[in-house]
Specification:
The chain has 598 residues and is α+β, with helices and mostly antiparallel strands. The protein is built from 10 helices and 36 strands. Strands 29-30-32-31-33-34-35-36 form an 8-stranded mixed sheet, with helices on both faces. A 4-stranded antiparallel sheet has the order 1-2-3-4, with no helix packed on it. The chain has a 4-stranded antiparallel sheet with strand order 5-6-7-8, with no helix packed on it. The longest helix has 19 residues, at 578-596. It is globular, with a radius of gyration of 24 Å.
Length: 598
């Protein structure tokens, strides 16, 4: 008999993420949730006992070592409200200084200047709606806005001399552009043509400032690496794999470029010589999902977080000279690794022949002759992507006797620009139909019990749960909606002002598409729901307001439907704190067991 582990055992599995090198490259800062929420730690590059530097009730959301001094900028918001404030921590003294202090606005870190004197960040502090770009003198704490043209603008790293800053302006639905800002004068220049729609990523400068590498998909389906030449003001694709590039990073001396490629959800990391864009002769990285990869300042090492479907995340280091890697954090867990299951990637045809990818987890031990009940875990975004990274809840459900499947229905990222646009505005319901055809796939696979299939989703995935239960109610036995949208009209009216324009580009406009938005909102079709529904929401959610959950639950109860609502007063968009996860997820398990295991 396989030993049985509890839901608490799985939820208490820890992870370490977001590494950042100290200026001398000998120390790595990172985030770990050992305390139950992510806090800031440091550990020697060679490994050893980590030292905890922060101990807050709320999660630390970002970490970045100064390129010069032994100090770290980190971000943190209170109670899940996403109004991130920036702090400066002196590693030697452990003293912390608040850099921003506007609790009703967010301040998202962009990067350091190379001399360590300035940082850049973007914030909605001016009017709550527009997101502008600022630079701050770290010593004095004085900030000034350098780009405030309205809309949603994000800041990235300074050019090597600190004289220039590249800003991206975001329009939603997979479109943004780049602007080059002169830091001294504030004069901005559009670098990318306005008529070319596409995703454009942050710049990675050459040290002589003649140009920068960046990721984009303008003019092609998949994201490739381009080089922008400041002399000619033109960009040219230099790496174009037939898969999306996740991100790039360049060494301080400009000699090596690190490239992450996303192939069907799996990723690979390759280091190139920038002079000829050929892979370096020797490079060996571990298998798994690599994220947060970053160079040391001398370009000799890469730190990254590594996880897989069957391995919780930890921080690793790779040596360029030695071409070897080693693990420097060892996140605790009570569940042995051999209990975990790697998902299988399969594809199924939808109504129009589109091949939809899905990751399938099945129990290692199955009762002979019994079909397996299924939980369909739908990602948010809607342009996110389910990938074979560690998922403690999915692992518990599989250990508990369920199959867990994670579909990437149309509209997901990672499969090209055309695939991501297949659910825009009036095509929204096509992604819901993808779920219907996934049920047909389950019916044809003899392993699964197609009469016992539940939907579970977070954020936009929560909307997909509600839409599935509403528009194809006969297919689904139960639903768990976590911070989901129940009414697109009220959602767009009440979401944070800085998000509304981008969300309308994806879902439809309140001014021109109101009738359509009402037609795809589950709350308007309560009478069609047959399955019991559990709703979970954070009281401080700035993205999908709590009212979306409350109005859905109220109408369900008034209609005599089975519904339960769990609200967490110190959470925002999702459950970040272990104490709340330990309360909510056992209730989710009991709810699903009562329906699917009878």
């Amino acid at each position: 008999m396989q030993p049985q582990y509890t839901i608490e055992d799985f939820l208490d599995i820890k992870s370490a993420v977001a590494p950042s090198f100290s200026p001398d490259g000998n120390t790595v800062a990172f985030l770990s949730n050992v305390t139950g929420v992510f806090q800031l730690y440091v550990v020697p590059r060679t490994g050893g006992e980590p030292e905890q530097l922060t101990a807050y009730e709320d999660s630390v959301s970002s970490v970045s070592f100064s390129p010069i001094n032994n100090e770290i900028v980190f971000g943190m918001a209170k109670g899940g409200n996403e109004n991130v404030q920036l702090f400066l921590l002196d590693v030697a003294s452990k003293s912390v200084r608040m850099l921003t202090s506007e609790p009703t606005a967010f301040h998202n870190f962009g990067g350091w200047s190379r001399d360590g004197k300035f940082i850049t960040y973007h914030s909605n502090v001016r009017n709550g709606k527009d997101v502008d770009v600022y630079i701050m003198d770290v010593e004095t704490g004085v900030s000034r806005m350098v780009y405030g043209e309205g809309g949603s603008c994000w800041s990235y790293s300074f050019s090597p001399t600190g004289s220039k800053l590249v800003v991206t302006k975001n329009y939603g639905a997979g479109r943004n552009d780049l602007h080059l800002v002169d830091v001294a004068s504030g004069v901005a220049e559009l670098l990318t043509p306005e008529d070319e729609k596409g995703i454009i990523g942050p710049p990675r400068w050459l040290p002589d400032e003649r140009g920068f590498f960046f990721v984009q998909n303008r003019g092609r389906d998949f994201c490739g690496v381009s080089f922008f030449d400041l002399a000619t003001k033109k960009s040219l694709y230099v790496l174009v794999p037939e898969h999306d590039i996740d991100g790039i990073s360049i060494t301080r001396d400009g000699e090596h470029l690190m490239v992450m490629v996303n192939k069907d959800g799996y990723n690979t990391l390759t280091v190139y010589e920038t002079k000829n864009l050929q892979p370096v002769s020797k490079q060996n990285f571990p298998k798994g999902m690599i994220s947060g990869a970053t160079w040391s300042s001398d370009g000799s090492h890469i730190a990254f977080s590594l996880a897989s479907g069957a391995k919780n995340g930890d921080v690793w280091v790779w040596s360029k000279e030695e071409n070897k890697y080693w693990q420097i954090t060892h996140s605790p867990r009570r569940v042995p690794e051999e209990v975990f299951v790697e998902p299988e990637l399969v594809k199924y045809p939808s109504f129009d022949g589109l091949q939809v990818p899905v990751f399938v987890y099945t129990p290692k031990v199955q009762s002979s002759g019994q079909k397996i009940p299924v939980i369909v875990d739908i990602h948010g975004g809607p342009t996110d992507q389910s990938r074979p990274r560690f998922n403690a809840l999915a692992q518990y459900f599989v250990h508990h006797g369920y199959a867990v499947v994670l579909p990437n229905v149309r509209g997901s990222s990672g499969y090209g620009k055309a695939y991501m646009a297949l659910d825009d505005v009036k095509k929204r319901m096509d992604s819901v139909t993808d779920l219907e055809y996934f049920h047909k796939f389950l019916e044809q696979d003899g392993r699964f019990d197609a009469k016992k299939v539940a939907l579970l989703g977070v954020s936009y995935g929560g909307y997909m749960v509600l839409a599935g239960l509403t528009f194809r109610p006969e297919l689904w036995a139960a639903g768990v909606d976590i911070v989901g949208i129940s009414n697109f009209v009220s959602f767009l009216e009440n979401t944070s002002p800085y998000r509304r324009e981008n969300r309308e580009a994806e879902y439809g406009s309140l001014a021109t598409d109101r009738e359509f938005l009402q037609s795809i909102s589950p709350i308007n079709f309560i009478e069609d729901i047959q399955a019991p529904l559990l709703i979970v929401h954070g009281a401080n959610d700035p993205r999908v307001p709590l009212s979306e959950a409350e109005q859905m639950h109220k109408k369900l109860i008034e209609s005599g439907k089975k519904s339960e609502l769990l609200v967490y007063a110190d959470e925002g968009h999702g459950l970040k704190k272990l104490k709340n996860r330990l309360d909510a997820y056992p209730k989710i398990v009991n709810f699903l067991d009562a329906v699917l295991k009878v």
